[in-house]
What we know:
Layout: E1 3-8, H1 14-22, E2 27-29, H2 31-42, H3 45-52, H4 57-61, E3 66-73, E4 76-83, E5 86-92, H5 102-126, H6 131-151, H7 167-177
Antiparallel strand pairs: 1-5, 2-3, 3-4, 4-5
Amino acid sequence: MSHKFVTRCIEANGDDINEMVDMPLKTTMTNGYFIEKLAPKLGIDKEVMGMLGYDTKKFFAGDWAMNCASSFYQGIPCLYVQHSRIEHIFVDDKDYHLVLTEEGAKERQIKISVLRDYLEELIEERQPSTPRAYFSLAKAFYNAHKDDLDSYRIPLSSFAEHCCDYDKAFVQFDKSHFGKDPEAGRELA
């Protein structure tokens, strides 16, 4: 279960970074937990500290200008450290081959944009007003666009980036559906 550095936000597609950072499926963690417990298990503690210029885990854990989280980068489970507003992204070694080229990342973001338009139309048509109605909408939208969502590894949470009415329903849907097909998105890599 070791992890590998993928990229920093300044070298990556900005839309991929925004999706990763803004999605409500993201889980934040304390700097201390990340560097003292999780990073050593994943074999990245020394790499992260060296990359960011830390001599001790204590200084890393106490840095107020840093955030650590788990999320999805290009639909791939990831961990990232945001230091001085620059995200440093790590994925599991077994998923590293799934990281998209620049062209593949652009194609994926175009697909997200097209699907977002379809989702907005569906919301306008149904006008859901309760969490249950939004969850039902999530199921209907997923069923209508399953092939694209799965092949491009797009969690529904990608469409709920900014604390909207449906973010909780989409997170609930993703927790039970996203990433369950191990072959989804393999052809994109």
